[in-house]
Amino acid sequence: MVKKQDQPVSGQVYAPPVYPMKTKTRITVLFVVMVGLLIYSSQRTEVTFSSLATGIPNMVQVFVKFFPPDFDIMDAVIKRLAETIQMAVIATTFAALLCVPLSLLAARNIMPNRWVYFTVRTFLNILRTIPDIVLAVIFVGLFGIGALSGILALIIFSLGILAKLISETIEAVDMKPIEAMRASGANSLQTICFGLVPQVLPQFFSFVLYVLEINIRASVVLGLVGAGGIGLLLDQQIKFYNYPQAMAIIIVIFAAVVIIEFISTKIREAIV
Amino acid sequence: MALQLPPKKKRPFAKRARNWLIALAVIAIYIWTFTGIEIDFAKAGERMANNFHRVIPRLFDPNWETFSQVMDKMMETLFIAFIGSLSAAVLAVPLGFLSARNMTRNRVLTVAGKWILSAIRAFPDLILAILFVVAVGAKPFAGVLAIAVGSIGMLGKLYSEVLESIDMKVVEAMEANGANKIQILFHGILPQIIPEFLSYAIYRFEIDVRASSVLGYVGAGGIGTLIYFASANRNWNDMGMILFVIILVVTVIDLLSGYIRKRIV
């Protein structure tokens, strides 16, 4: 039955509301809550429009000091950048190797045992919540300053991300070939090698490249705590107020990230 | 009769050559990496043997006296992430519209918008934080700015992808019926994009909580400040407490945001 209000009244065109009343109230409540939270948190963090207004001219003043960038320290920068990339490559390789068993254990369709599945899943979730800088600080405390601490921190950091992405890929595969193989008497190892791996491999390499990108970015963080890489150099230059040199380093990092992202996007497009 | 596999299909020469080239490049990268890196395993092993009992057991024995202080700083981190991602969620909307091909007819503008967004994304958050700390001083405000600017890049890109995937038939029908731009925006476009925009904004908040817990290390406020002090003083009990609070709060935020996102999409 047509509701009364939906019937056109003679002489005027009736337009039904685009958004139902329920959605409207919901959005209004949400809006009020968000604004309230915003006001409260801006008080807590002392962020106000006036600080923004005074901040912007100040910012312009400071940013001018960064220009023109001074590329005289290029030799040191290139050496550190090479170290950064090497650390990322090593860490990504080890994380890729380590994540294979972990992601198999954390895939519901491969791991029949509920308890193992949940334990590994929870472990991975906790692993992913630990910020990279905390891992780096801990490993520097253990192994001292140097690239090794950075590599270990990156391995743990990327292991969490990679294992999660890959276990989700494994859960999304087509199970029919695997069931067929099981039915014709293949053992677990055989089903994984010939039924699962061919389906997952392109995605696997794509995610590994993605994690390599993340690791190169993260190694900026690592340098700050003395775990090797280009971040250390940047921190030193900022602390000594060598802003033009710092700008040169920032430009180099920026260029490196853009180039590596470009290459890895092209490769990922080619293999998936 | 012996069972036999069918003969393998011959691959074209170009493809084989390409695969060989890729293999060679990968091998070259690995040789460069492993010969180039300098690691003093002996020294690191020695240090590890000395430090192990000083670090690891203390990490698992967090200093509960600092719980309220750590929690307070963690809340500050959450507030920084909230303001940062909320302002980014709003500021990214015009950029998203600018770089969506079906919203901006001018190709030069869309390409420019995409370039701006990817340039922002290429900056690691921490470098932005370092720059803003230099600019506005070591306070949470610097963290908010770093988070806001850093999030605009990703949100703008995701927004523009959502916009490019909307059903344009609705918009065309409205245009044909003589609706003006504002009517099309409010009744044709917004209903299609709001759930996904919200979902991405919440997802970015999740990332920003992780990101802003690090920013304090360079002076941009939040729990990172405590990480800095704990690491400078080698106070591993405090570090254990910080780690515990971060794991707890981030897990809760992840669960909540996952739940909300599932509801709205």
Automatic annotation (TrEMBL), chain A:
Give GO MF terms, alphabetically. ABC-type phosphonate transporter activity
What range(s) does the ABC transmembrane type-1 domain occupy? Answer: 81-264
Instruction: Tell me the PROSITE patterns matching this sequence.
Output: ABC_TM1
Please state the protein's primary subcellular location. membrane
Q: Which domain of life is it from?
A: Bacteria
Transmembrane annotation, as ranges: 27-43, 49-67, 88-107, 133-166, 187-210, 216-234, 246-264
Keyword terms of this UniProt record: Cell membrane, Membrane, Transmembrane, Transmembrane helix, Transport
Localisation:
Cell membrane
Cellular compartments per GO CC: plasma membrane
Q: Return the CDD domains for the record.
A: TM_PBP2
For membrane topology, the record states: Multi-pass membrane protein
Q: Which family does it belong to?
A: Belongs to the binding-protein-dependent transport system permease family.
PANTHER family attached here? Answer: ABC TRANSPORT SYSTEM PERMEASE PROTEIN P69, PHOSPHONATES TRANSPORT SYSTEM PERMEASE PROTEIN
Protein name according to UniProt: ABC transmembrane type-1 domain-containing protein
TrEMBL record, chain B:
Q: Organism source for this protein?
A: Caldibacillus debilis
Database matches in PROSITE patterns: ABC_TM1 (PS50928)
Protein name, entry field: Phosphonate ABC transporter, permease protein PhnE
What keywords sit in the KW lines?
A: Membrane, Transmembrane, Transmembrane helix, Transport
Topology term for the membrane: Multi-pass membrane protein
Tell me which Pfam families the record gives.
BPD_transp_1
Q: Which residues form the ABC transmembrane type-1 domain?
A: 74-257
Q: Which GO molecular function, any one, fits this protein according to its record?
A: ABC-type phosphonate transporter activity
The UniProt entry, under CDD domains, shows:
TM_PBP2
Q: Does the keyword S-adenosyl-L-methionine apply?
A: no
The UniProt record lists the keyword Membrane? yes
Q: Which family does it belong to?
A: Belongs to the binding-protein-dependent transport system permease family.
* Cellular component terms per the entry's GO annotation: cell envelope; plasma membrane
Q: Where in the cell is it found?
A: Cell envelope; Cell membrane; Membrane
Q: Which residues form a coiled coil?
A: none
InterPro entries in UniProt: MetI-like (IPR000515), MetI-like_sf (IPR035906), PhnE/PtxC (IPR005769)
Q: Which residues cross the membrane?
A: 20-39, 78-100, 214-233, 239-260
